[in-house]
Amino acid sequence: MQTKVCISVDTEFSIAGAFHDHSLSPVAEQRVWCVVDNKSHGLGFMLDCFARHRITATFFVEAMNRHYFKHDPMRSIAEQLHTAGHEVQLHVHPCWTVFQHEDWRERVRVRTKPGIDDFYRRPEDESLRLIEAGMQTFHDWGLPAPTVFRSASLQHDDTLFRAQKRAGIPFSSHVGLAVFDSGDPQYRLYSGRHERHGVIECPILTFCDWKLPGKQHLKTLTITGSSFAEMRMLLEEAQREGVEQVVILTHPFEFVHNRDFTVRQMRRHALNQRRLEKLCAFIDANRDRFAPVGVATAASAPMLPQSSRNLLIRGSLLTAVPRMAEQFAYEKYSHWQLVRQ
To answer: How far apart are the C-alpha atoms of 156 and 189, rounded to whole Å?
Structure first.
């Protein structure tokens, strides 16, 4: 059996501190393309890497930013991704909708429940309106209607799944337990595919990267947070255990190192770029065991009894400790280099 590997890319612009410091402004294309010395080290690097290794990825494209960026710069990005043959699916950050209001500065100062960017505990009808607005954006862009939805910051609850069902989007990838844990046992999902309120959820793989007596540490599988050695170990263990698919999370901005919100000072993040390159090369060289596909392709396969097996894969301190040391050293080095600039 081939294990489907779904590299998912949350593709979004940045508020860039504007809610807290009104002298700052949100950042659009540079947050995605991440151009340094006239070369794209973000999305451009990713697309080149995927093309070299024949990888189909899923880009969860944020659709609410057009409330601020009236020239709608995400449209051309989404079109390029679709033309390149990747899955383009829906991502929504509710915080962008505040820019509909002239008094947005006052609104962001007021603490509300749910928070300005929260889906967790948001009323069902409000979540439905946000999802449908995102679907309308895809229609305006001339793209196929999304079939997979991913929420802001991976927030989720029963209400969100009910709203998504009403919107008619059949698949989701909301759950990444080390990023957001609602505390609801029915959403403590590590792997597999799981039906919730008529929606098939494909969680980002969450694994135990280390365990000590009386304590275990959970980690959601990301490029920026996992070494290639860990990713290879997790893929091979998933394949041995018959896990149908492994969902991995990344963002274009993870492939550069920024000094601050303004993204005026950046440098190539060589460590994360090497990780993605090695991962794609490994998948490409082992297609007898691994199939690089989009999340919708994996989610739409017939549900079998083993599809909902919720396996927690366990890593080892032998891989976790070198990764932590490598990341600490590289972050210190990158910051030093940026300061020198």
So the answer is: 12
